[in-house]
Specification:
Blueprint: H1 3-25, H2 29-36, H3 47-51, E1 59-64, E2 75-80, E3 88-94, H4 107-112, E4 116-121, H5 130-146, E5 154-164, H6 166-177, E6 183-187, E7 203-208, H7 220-226, E8 233-238, H8 251-265, E9 284-289
Parallel strand pairs: 3-4, 3-5, 5-6, 6-7, 7-8
Antiparallel strand pairs: 1-2, 2-4, 8-9
Helix pairs in contact: 1-2, 5-6
Length: 294
C-alpha cells in the first residue's frame, strides 16, 4: 500500500472520529480537531519550538552493537522516554560515503525530543553504495519494529528514512523499494540514478548551493524534478552551504526536517504553516514544492 493511500485512510479515520464526537457531544468539529488526530504528539508548534535544540520530550538512547544485528552495521537509537503519549513514528538515518553514524548523530536527540524514535546507523561498510545503504535503512527499520528493545514504543505503520550524501541516495532507493514509507529526507544526496519517477513517499530533498561533491545541478535538483508532480514533495537549497552542511548542527536542516516528519509521519497539519507557502530567508537559496499538501 502506498504512503498516499495510507495517509488518505488516516484522514478518513480522523474525519470519522470528528463526526462521531460531534454527534455524541454536540461539540463542533473544529473545536475538537486537534485532539482527534491519534498520531499528534507534543504541544502546538511555534517557530521557536522547531528551531530549539531540544523539543518537549525527554529522551534516552541505546547502543545497538554491530554483532547484534544483520543487514546493517548497528547504530544508536534515540527515543522519547514517555510511555503515556502513545506510540511514536520512527526514522532511520544513514551516513554518507566513508562516514560513520557520528556524521548524523546530532539529528538523533534533536528529532527524538520532538516525538520520534530515531535510529542513526552504521553501514556494513563505509564504502557501501547508495542502493546498499537504502537496503540497510530498511533492515534497520525492520530491526526497530521487530526486535529492538524499543519496539513497543513504535507505530510500525509510521516510518521514514533520512540520509546524507550516499545515505541520501539510499533514502531515495529505500522509498523506491518500500512505497509504504511515510516520509523521506535525502540531505545533499548522491546517486548515479537521476530518475525517481516511481517514488510514492513524501520527499523533502535538501541540497547545498556550494556543494562540489554532489552538485545540486547534477544530483539534488534532477532528483527533485524527476519525482512525480502529483507527489507531496519539496526542495530546499541551503544558501552558500557545502556538501557537509547536514553533518553538524544546522537549524535550517533541523526545523524543516522536523516539520516534514511531523506533517507526513504524524499526519500533523499543525506543521503546514512552516512548509506552505514556500519558506524564504537568508539561509535558503531556493525552495520549490507542490504544496498545499494532501
Amino acid at each position: 500500500m502506498s504512503s498516499r493511500v495510507t495517509r488518505a485512510l488516516r484522514a478518513a479515520l480522523i474525519g470519522s472520529t470528528l463526526a462521531l464526537a460531534t454527534t455524541f457531544t454536540g461539540v463542533t468539529a473544529p473545536a475538537i480537531a486537534a485532539a482527534a488526530n491519534p498520531y499528534e504528539r507534543g504541544p502546538a508548534p511555534t517557530v521557536a519550538s522547531i528551531e530549539a535544540a531540544t523539543g518537549s520530550f525527554a529522551t534516552a538512547k541505546v547502543t545497538v552493537a554491530r554483532s547484534a544485528v544483520s543487514g546493517f552495521g548497528g547504530g544508536t537509537i534515540y527515543y522519547p522516554t514517555s510511555t503515556t503519549a502513545g506510540t511514536f513514528g520512527a526514522v532511520a538515518i544513514s551516513p554518507g560515503f566513508t562516514a560513520s553514524q557520528s556524521a548524523v548523530a546530532w539529528l538523533g536527540p534533536r528529532l527524538a525530543s520532538q516525538g520520534f524514535v530515531i535510529f542513526t546507523i552504521d553501514t556494513s561498510s563505509t564504502l557501501d553504495s547508495p542502493d546498499s545503504r537504502g537496503t540497510q535503512l530498511l533492515a534497520a527499520l525492520d530491526y526497530l519494529t521487530g526486535s529492538s528493545s524499543v519496539r513497543t514504543r513504535i507505530d510500525a505503520t509510521r516510518l521514514g528514512v533520512m540520509g546524507h550524501s550516499m545515505g541520501g541516495g539510499g533514502s531515495l532507493a529505500a522509498t523506491r523499494t518500500r512505497p509504504a514509507l511515510q516520509a523521506s529526507i535525502p540531505m545533499t544526496p548522491y546517486h548515479t540514478t537521476k530518475s525517481w519517477t516511481t517514488v510514492q513517499t513524501p520527499t523533502l530533498i535538501i541540497g547545498a548551493e556550494s556543494d562540489t561533491v554532489a552538485p545540486v545541478a547534477s544530483h539534488a535538483e534532477p532528483f527533485y524534478t524527476s519525482l512525480p508532480s502529483t507527489l507531496d514533495k519539496a526542495y530546499l537549497e541551503l544558501n552558500n552551504a557545502s556538501h557537509s552542511a547536514p553533518t553538524s548542527t544546522n537549524v535550517t536542516v533541523a526545523k524543516y526536517s522536523i516539520s516534514w516528519l511531523k506533517r507526513f509521519i504524524d499526519n500533523d497539519t499543525r506543521y503546514d504553516q512552516f512548509l506552505c507557502p514556500n519558506p524564504s530567508g537568508t539561509a535558503i537559496q531556493e525552495w520549490r514544492s507542490t504544496c498545499n499538501y494532501s
